[in-house]
Every structure is written in structure tokens, then in C-alpha cells.
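From the shared-data thread, chain only:
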Amino acid sequence: MKVQDSYLEPAAPSLGKAREMEEARGSGAKSAEGAPERAEPDRVRVSGLSERLLGALEAEQPEREARIAQLSAEYRAGSYNVDAAKISNRMVESALAGDA
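Structure, as C-alpha cells:
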């Protein structure tokens, strides 16, 4: 008995074409898992929001560096004093505002 299925017959030639295209596309190198290796490296794209945030941080960088240098100098000179009341007030304000 012969089975004629029009859906099966075209599949065989297309498999050969797929293999030809795969071989023509790359060298056929395989990874450890047996999958074809990629010819192109992976790419990372940063969103517009991330770029703006980075720009804002870089804009504040000189002031931040100056403040850190000032605090370092005070610490080395022994004149840096921690205002515990000010710090605790800011911590409470931040917690109440939901920033924490």
C-alpha cells in the first residue's frame, strides 16, 4: 500500500536546502553542546533612560569629587566631626518619605 501525502513530499527537498544554507552561512563550527557557533558577537544596547541617568551622574561628578576631597582632608587633619543628630534626623525623614 502506498501513502500519498502532499504535505510530506515537499519537506524532503526543503531539508536539503536548509542544510545547504546552513553550510553556506558559516564554517559549520560547533560549540561544546553541539549547536552551531555564532559568527557575530553578542551586543548590548543601553536604553535612553540609562544614558540620561549616566549623563546626570557624570555632570555631578566634579562636585562630588570636590566634596570627597574636602571630607578626606578634614578626616586626615582630625577635624572631621560627625553630627549624629543631623544624621539621625535625615534617616527618619528618609524613612517617613519612603526613600529607604
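Residues 60 and 81 are 25 Å apart (CA to CA).
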